[in-house]
C-alpha cells in the first residue's frame, strides 16, 4: 500500500505530531496533484505550519506516511532539495545583503536556476535590486522570499502565508505570478488566511482544524453542494400590523424562489418583494460555518430561517 | 516570466560543495566588511591593546627577560596575537551562527540544496582571511610603531604558520560547536564573550602566566588559548625566553596535542549538535 503515485506531488496519510500535551497534527490525510495550486486553510494553531514544515523536511513526525515528490522528507538529500522551493512563514535574516546579491547567490545553489534578473523583475523588485534587505518594507521582503523560493525552478513550491503584508495591488500581481508558475507546470502548496486568495488561486482547498482535514474540495464545491446555495432575504409585514419580520431562505434556484415568494405574498409575479436580497455565500462564509466560528449576524439569520420553516 | 519549463536535455548536476563553499566565502566576506564599525573595532582592538600595554608598562624603557632583555611591547605581542585569533575565530563564529540560527537564516539555507560543508567552508574562509589581515596589521604596527623585532629565522615562521593554522581551525570548530549553547541570538554575546574574556585573564594574555596561581595555570592549561599564546611567544620572543615559561621550555609537542585535541572534540561535538533551526522549532 501507499506506493508513490506519479501524478501526486504530495501524499500524506495519517500524519501525527505532538508538542508536549498538544496534538498539533492528528491523523491528517492530504494529496496534492502535480501541476495544481493547493491551498490549506485553517485557524491559527490548526496545524498548518507544522504540517507544511514536516513536508519541507524541517520537522520530524510521530506517525503517518509522507511522500513529497516520491521521497520521504525525513530522508531528504540535495537532489530532492533542488526540486522544491520553500517560502517560510516569517523571515528577517540576510539583512545586510542586497536583493540582487541574494537572488544571484541563491541561484548558484541549483542545477538549472531561473535567470536571477528575470525573477527579480517577476516579483517586482527591480527598482530595489541594490537595496539591502533591511531597507525593504514588509511586502517587499516577502516578495524577496518568494524570489528566493522560485529561483531554483522548483517542481513543487511551498508557500506559508505568502502574501501577509502585501498591499492589494501587490497581491494581485503575486497571484498572476503564481498562476504563471502553475501554467509552467509548477505544483504549489500554500497556506493562507485570505479566503479570497484561496478562492482566486487554488484549484483545490483543504480546511484544517485541530490537526485534521475537515473538508477538501474545489473552492466552488467546498462544504458540499448546498453550501453555496443562494441566500434569499426579505421582510414581511405582520397581518395585524405587527412588527416587520426579517426572513431568510436558501435555494439552488433563486429566481423561481423569489417568484414563488412574490405570488405567495399576493404581489403577483411582477410584484416587488419588500427588503429583497439575493446573496451567494462566499468561500469565507462557507469556511467560517465549517470551522464553527459563524459571525453573530449569521447565527441570527439561521435562527430566522428555522422560524420560517 | 519566460522559460518556466526546465531546459530539455540531461539534468545538469548539482554544483560541487567546494565551489559553493568558495561562493559562501565571498558572500561572508562581503557581509562582514559591510558592517564597517564592527570591522574597525575588531581590527583596532588588538592594536589598541598593544598600545595601552606598551605605554603603561614600557614607558621607562624597562626590559624583561634574561639579559639583554626585551621590551614590554615585544613581551605582550604574542598574547595579543593569540587573543585576536580567538576573538575572530571562536567568538565571532559562535555569535554569528547563533544569530543566523535565531533569525531563520540557517533554516532558509537548509531548505536549499546547498550542502552543510559549503556553509562551514564559508565561515572558515571568512575567519582565515580576517585573521590573516588582523594579524598582519598588528605585526606591522608592532614592528613600525613599537620597534618590536620580527623573527628572522625560517623555523620561527614555520612555527608561526602551524600555530596560526591550528589556532584558527580549533577556534572555528569550537565556535561552531559552542554556537548551540546560547538559547537565542540575543543571548549569544552574553554567553560567548565572557568565556573568551575569562580565558584571556587566566591564559597569560594580560598577566605573565608564571605569576598566576598554580591552580589557575592548571585550569588554563586545559583550554586552547594558553597554548596559543605560548606558541606565539615561542615565535616572537628571543631565544632564552623559554626559561620564563612554567615548564621551562616552549612545549611545542604539548601545544600541538592540546590544540588538535580541541579540534577533534570541537568537530565531533559541533557536527553532532549543530542545529539549523532554533531549539523551539523542531
Tell me about this structure.
The complex is a heterodimer of chains A (309) and B (282). Chain A starts with 7 loop residues before the first strand and ends with a helix. In chain A, the strands form 3 sheets. A 6-stranded mixed beta sheet of chain A has the order 5-6-7-3-8-9, with helices on both faces. In chain A, strands 2-1-4 form a 3-stranded antiparallel beta sheet, covered by helices on one side. In chain A, strand 10 (230-237) and strand 11 form a beta hairpin. Chain A has helices spanning 48-55, 78-83, 99-107, 116-122, 138-150, 168-183, 195-201, 254-264, 283-290, 296-308; strands spanning 8-19, 22-33, 37-41, 63-68, 84-87, 156-160, 187-191, 204-209, 212-217, 230-237, 244-251, 277-279. In chain A, helix 3 (99-107) crosses helix 4 (116-122). With 309 residues, chain A is α/β, with parallel strands linked by helices. Chain A is elongated. Chain A has 2 domains: 8-217, P-loop containing nucleotide triphosphate hydrolases (Rossmann fold), CATH 3.40.50; 225-308, no CATH class. Chain B is mainly α. Chain B has one domain (17-273). Chain B contains 10 helices and 2 strands. Chain B has helices at residues 17-34, 36-58, 72-103, 105-110, 116-145, 154-178, 185-202, 214-222, 224-236, 252-273; strands spanning 63-64, 70-71. In chain B, strand 1 and strand 2 (70-71) form a beta hairpin. In chain B, helix 3 packs parallel to helix 6 (154-178) and helix 9 (224-236) runs antiparallel to helix 10. Chain B is elongated and about 65 Å long. The two termini of chain B are 35 Å apart. The model of chain B is unreliable at 1-7 (pLDDT under 50).
Amino acid at each position: 500500500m501507499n506506493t508513490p503515485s506519479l501524478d501526486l506531488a504530495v501524499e500524506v496519510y495519517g500524519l501525527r505530531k505532538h508538542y508536549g500535551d498538544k496534538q498539533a497534527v492528528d491523523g491528517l490525510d492530504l494529496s496534492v496533484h502535480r501541476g495544481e495550486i493547493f491551498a490549506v486553510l485553517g485557524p491559527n494553531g490548526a496545524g498548518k505550519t507544522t504540517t507544511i514544515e514536516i513536508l519541507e523536511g524541517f520537522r520530524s513526525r510521530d506517525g503517518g506516511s509522507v511522500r513529497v515528490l516520491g521521497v520521504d522528507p525525513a530522508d531528504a538529500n540535495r537532489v530532492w532539495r533542488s526540486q522544491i522551493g520553500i517560502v517560510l512563514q516569517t523571515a528577517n535574516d540576510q539583512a545586510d545583503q542586497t536583493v540582487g546579491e541574494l537572488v544571484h547567490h541563491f541561484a548558484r545553489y541549483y542545477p538549472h536556476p531561473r535567470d536571477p534578473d528575470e525573477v527579480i523583475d517577476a516579483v517586482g523588485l527591480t527598482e530595489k535590486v541594490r537595496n539591502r534587505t533591511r531597507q525593504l518594507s514588509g511586502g517587499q521582503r516577502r516578495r524577496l522570499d518568494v524570489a528566493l523560493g522560485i529561483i531554483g525552478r522548483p517542481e513543487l513550491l511551498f508557500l506559508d502565508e505568502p502574501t501577509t503584508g502585501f498591499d492589494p495591488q501587490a497581491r494581485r500581481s503575486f497571484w498572476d505570478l503564481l498562476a504563471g508558475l502553475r501554467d509552467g507546470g509548477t505544483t504549489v502548496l500554500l497556506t493562507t488566511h485570505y479566503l479570497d486568495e484561496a478562492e482566486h488561486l487554488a484549484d483545490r482547498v483543504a480546511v484544517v482544524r485541530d490537526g485534521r482535514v475537515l473538508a477538501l474540495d474545489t473552492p466552488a464545491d467546498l462544504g458540499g453542494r448546498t453550501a453555496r446555495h443562494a441566500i434569499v432575504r426579505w421582510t414581511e409585514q405582520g397581518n395585524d400590523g405587527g412588527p416587520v419580520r426579517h426572513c431568510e431562505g436558501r435555494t439552488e434556484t433563486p429566481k423561481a424562489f423569489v417568484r414563488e415568494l412574490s405570488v405567495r405574498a399576493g404581489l403577483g409575479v411582477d410584484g416587488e418583494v419588500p427588503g429583497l436580497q439575493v446573496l451567494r455565500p462566499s468561500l469565507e462564509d462557507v469556511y467560517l460555518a465549517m470551522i464553527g466560528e459563524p459571525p453573530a449576524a449569521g447565527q441570527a439569520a439561521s435562527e430566522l430561517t428555522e422560524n420560517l420553516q | 516570466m519566460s522559460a518556466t519549463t526546465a531546459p530539455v536535455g540531461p539534468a545538469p548536476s548539482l554544483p560541487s560543495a567546494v565551489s559553493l563553499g568558495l561562493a559562501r566565502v565571498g558572500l561572508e566576506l562581503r557581509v562582514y566588511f559591510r558592517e564597517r564599525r564592527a570591522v574597525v573595532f575588531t581590527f583596532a582592538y588588538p592594536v589598541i591593546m598593544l598600545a595601552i600595554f606598551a605605554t603603561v608598562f614600557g614607558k621607562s624603557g624597562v626590559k624583561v627577560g634574561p639579559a639583554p632583555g626585551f621590551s614590554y611591547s615585544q613581551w605582550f605581542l604574542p598574547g595579543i596575537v593569540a587573543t585576536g585569533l580567538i576573538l575572530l575565530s571562536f567568538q565571532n563564529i559562535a555569535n554569528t551562527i547563533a544569530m543566523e540560527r535565531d533569525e531563520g537564516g540557517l533554516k532558509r539555507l537548509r531548505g536549499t540544496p546547498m550542502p552543510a560543508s559549503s556553509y562551514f567552508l564559508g565561515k572558515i574562509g571568512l575567519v582565515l582571511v580576517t585573521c590573516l589581515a588582523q594579524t598582519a596589521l598588528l605585526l606591522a604596527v608592532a614592528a613600525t610603531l613599537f620597534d618590536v623585532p620580527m623573527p628572522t629565522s625560517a623555523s620561527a615562521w614555520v612555527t608561526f604558520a602551524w600555530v596560526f593554522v591550528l589556532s584558527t581551525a580549533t577556534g572555528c570548530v569550537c565556535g561552531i560547536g559552542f554556537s548551540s549553547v546560547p538559547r537565542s541570538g540575543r543571548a549569544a554575546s552574553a554567553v560567548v564573550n565572557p568565556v573568551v574574556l575569562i580565558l584571556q585573564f587566566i591564559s597569560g594574555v594580560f598577566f605573565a602566566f608564571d605569576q598566576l596561581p598554580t591552580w589557575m595555570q592548571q585550569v588554563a592549561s586545559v583550554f586552547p588559548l594558553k597554548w596559543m599564546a605560548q606558541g606565539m611567544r615561542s615565535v616572537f620572543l628571543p631565544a632564552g625566553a623559554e626559561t620564563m615559561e612554567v615548564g621551562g621550555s616552549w612545549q611545542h609537542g604539548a601545544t600541538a596535542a592540546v590544540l588538535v585535541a580541541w579540534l577533534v572534540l570541537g568537530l565531533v561535538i559541533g557536527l553532532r549538535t549543530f542545529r539549523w533551526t532554533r531549539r523551539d522549532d523542531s
